[in-house]
Predict the 3D structure of the following.
Amino acid sequence: MSDPSSRLSPFHALLGEGGVVTDADSLIRYTHDQRALMQGQTPGVLRPRSTEEVQAIVRLAVHLGFGLVPQGGNTGYVGGATPEPGRGQLVVSFERMNRIRSVDAAGFTLACDAGTILADAQAAAEAQGCLLPLSLGAEGSCRLGGNVGTNAGGLQVLRYGMTRDLVLGLEVVLPDGSLFSDMRTLRKNNIGYDLKQLFIGAEGTLGLVTGVVLKLWPAQTRRATAWLQLAANAPIPEIAALVRRETADLASTFELISASSLALVADMRGADLGLAAGPGGAVLLELSASSERIPLDDVLLGTLEALIEAGHVEDAVLAQSERQRREMWTIRETIPEAEKHAGGSVKLDIAVPTSAVSSFLERAGAVVAAEAPGTRLSFYGHVGDGNIHFNLMVPAGRDRLAFTREVEAGIAHAVYAVAVDLGGSFSAEYGIGRFKRDLLVRYGEPNRLALLSAIKRAIDPHGVMNAGAMI
Amino acid sequence: MSDPSSRLSPFHALLGEGGVVTDADSLIRYTHDQRALMQGQTPGVLRPRSTEEVQAIVRLAVHLGFGLVPQGGNTGYVGGATPEPGRGQLVVSFERMNRIRSVDAAGFTLACDAGTILADAQAAAEAQGCLLPLSLGAEGSCRLGGNVGTNAGGLQVLRYGMTRDLVLGLEVVLPDGSLFSDMRTLRKNNIGYDLKQLFIGAEGTLGLVTGVVLKLWPAQTRRATAWLQLAANAPIPEIAALVRRETADLASTFELISASSLALVADMRGADLGLAAGPGGAVLLELSASSERIPLDDVLLGTLEALIEAGHVEDAVLAQSERQRREMWTIRETIPEAEKHAGGSVKLDIAVPTSAVSSFLERAGAVVAAEAPGTRLSFYGHVGDGNIHFNLMVPAGRDRLAFTREVEAGIAHAVYAVAVDLGGSFSAEYGIGRFKRDLLVRYGEPNRLALLSAIKRAIDPHGVMNAGAMI
């Protein structure tokens, strides 16, 4: 193998100034995942500005024998965008492909480059009186290609679905450099296999997503938000079902916050939060509507009265101002940072059927108490969708990476076993990446894995695309 | 080749009494598509009662060299379930696999066999206080496996999406007889490629769907319905957008009915309908909600006032009773029958971006007037989703099949060209089947078709599954 830097000269020629990053200091932010659980390696980062440049990159990579790892905002939790040491993979960063291509306010669609930052796409929709409902903690830095590659979930799945449910069109550079372009803004189009579905959630292993068309909704001009203190043993599935019914599915957020997660936030702030959990934890509930004709405050109030009457909720606080609403949201959004501040956590991203959320919490809590007594938990999340971020805090004085490995080799499987027994899964929204490959094999049915490999071979026979991720 | 009936004896042994149909009279309802545009042929129809029997059928078929054509209610419009003359394909009918497996009312999911009639699944959901929103004209006889295979659309896509958007889980017998089972009721589950997406809309060409898990919603306990008379040149996209916004997306139906389609219904009934179209046609608009807390009548009234004020709507009738609501719906649902009664139609199932519906109608109408003067049109449909059933009536005295061929070879392409020019498609919800294979090739991009074939080869290398459909 010749000197890597000279092997990259065709890419320099192709991409021009700022198009290839090779100096060690600059590489760090591309080679380390955001939680610094993995230190990757790459001969260089390629920064194309157009779909045509991405096609040329792929053709060159095939010709020169480089593997490629696509990267958006590098905000993933499973190392899916981290180039593996020893593989000599080039990173393709989409940070210079961030153009909003079009917004159709009457048709409620938005088309943009894959490198568009989620918050920028949200703002472009909002400027036209529309809502792009994909919303997650990393929205200020994650990029839409990454959201598509990981089928991102987030805070409003309950009402609007996952990223897959929002995607109308995709543009993808295939492993031979050819282009699959299906950027039509159609809501209905039954013309053979819906091939774009393959690339959503594929973590860049089948091609490089360069463009996205998303569904929009009318901008939500009214909101009603409440903080619920749950009664002891409050049945979360029944509460969520009652909320859906009573609010006519205008609830866009139903987030559980455990007392322990709330305590972490208070610890970090060093101050009383002004909001407390009940014996069963707390729920952040938000309704939203695009029309003044819906009496949203009345709907919320009536729903809360029904919950209190049923004995599920002890007390509730209605946000009386945008400031108070922001306070409630900040608490929810600060939990990951508060976990980090307290020494870090091992994040288990559990999915169960919505109706099994309470059973899961009870059984998984008991498992951890029995097998790893004294371990502090922080659990919270999108329980209206059956998604629980069930995190084990790193004990004081323990090395974070060592504890992570210990949990992942042991107690994590006991927790996954509870989820699987309830018809659930070890990955709700984070994906597989490089950290959960073993889990995919361990919990994947053989027929499913065989089919997955057959698809990978059919589309990427030479393994150019993100080798080491997922499979 | 040996005598076909003796070649079927292993299937008789496998499926027992009533399991194999071979007599000519009984075969007719399986070998003719519902519009009798194609007369198919088959050595026999297989009627399994379980997933295991379907697996055994596939293994036997591979061994004996039979191709298979899956069939649900045989209500499709494109010949996708019709065995082709000369191919010796066996039909696999799912009519004996019609069990509701489970309904989870708190988790809002329903699991059932692929042969379940859509209306039966709707009823099972309703019995538990839930809504299965998939709704189409054929719901009393179509079966869910067929809905999945064709990614059926229908009357409530505007709010709830296509069949794809409703599917949480699938069970599929693969072309080698092995089982792909992903019947979990999870709303979030990111564990590698979402393989079930491949089988949705694949028209049975990749495997035989045997089980389905569907999302449910809270039962809609309130409805508000109106008949709108559109003003001349009323901008349909702007009206649909205003309706979405003003009703907070509680509109579940927004159906255009042209004056010409309405006239067909009146002709068939031989009576005044009591409801008229405006110069721009009529719209059937329905809002629905699961909660008494939403003042649905006020929301509808306010929305209609806004539409009249904007000059888009000349007049509107609010349904004052369930009887009046049913009358409005019956008119809409009777259009296909009225077309048949008037001598039949050639159905063009157009999709355009929602914002291009008015442009399409204007341009396509002009094209037909210029190239086939005197042709009577009947257009209607789910224009809130950009889907227009744009049908050309068979002229009095013309042979239906001959006229169909003439249109499909000529003027249809001029209409498709308008749709494609607006970023649209020649098939919104009917699919490809056997009638639109040529269109798929004519309008499909080469890279897309190559990928489609690669997937077919990877999963069904011996072409066992529904050969001749789609590709």
